[in-house]
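User: Quick sanity check before I run a bigger batch. Here is a single chain. Can you write out its predicted 3D structure?
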Amino acid sequence: MRFAVRRTIFYLITAWAAVTINFLIPRLMPGDPVTALMGRMQGRIDSNAEQSIRVLFGLDTESSVWQQYVDYWGLLLRGDLGLSFTFFPTPVADIVQQALPWTVGLVGIATIIAFTLGTLVGTAIGWRRGTWADSLLPITTFFSAVPYFWLGLIAITVFSVTLGWFPSSGSYDRGLVPTWSWEFVGSVIYYGFLPALTVVLSSVAGWILGMRNMMVTVSSEDYVTVAHAKGLPERTVMVGYAARNAILPQVSSFALSLGFVVGGTLIMEMVFSYQGIGYTLFQAVNTQDYPLMQGCFLVITLAVLGANIIADFVYAALDPRTRQEG
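Assistant: Done. Predicted structure follows.
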């Protein structure tokens, strides 16, 4: 119980610090988003409305930073993330709500595939170390060393431009209406194949190498030797004894990687013009859209914190030693 209380207090303090930084960073950035908005809306917004827009966005100079901070927390606790400058007058919450499922659906599934494939291959390679299977490691490591954007450009060049098998940009056929129909779902899978392939190829090597090294380490432990001495089947020893303990660090890393799924796809989404949260954040930074930046940062922060919480408690459940008082 004390472990859960300590971790809960720690994450509450971390969440407060993250939200505070999230509030301050956009306001320390140079530029005037209201002036930029007036320029984009030239002819559609009366120039006399500039001061009213500043008040609406909470950027009026008559309000102190502390008052803005208090107001920000009040709006945040009510679920109000403000209005987007770029897509004015659309609420930020609506924009984030539209973009988030695309990132979670694409990169989340790709990360799960990479984790599962990497863990299984790493288990097999680590258990049979010193065989021909070790030759797979340099190949997978090569793909992980290639930057996301470069691997994405290579995939577009080969599979889109040269072979014409897959589209080079977009998230679905714009001629379709988004519905839960087989035609639309098939279009989403078709357009998302190359971005997903990029994520899998870039990340699977880390899972293979991590699991392989842990399997090599636990294979020499006494409990594995005793299991062999008992005459247990090799598969039982590999899965029930070695892999069961070797996978503990993988579970922790996997939970953290799910948290970074939300915000770690900026480059990939830019390369493929994919309408996820990373591409939305890129647009917000370019247009100095403070509320949209804060909304994206907040979602990314909460996702990472949530992943850390899950990792802590899952790891504690799998390994009771982590719950001991330090």
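The mean pLDDT is 76.

User: Great, the batch can go ahead then.
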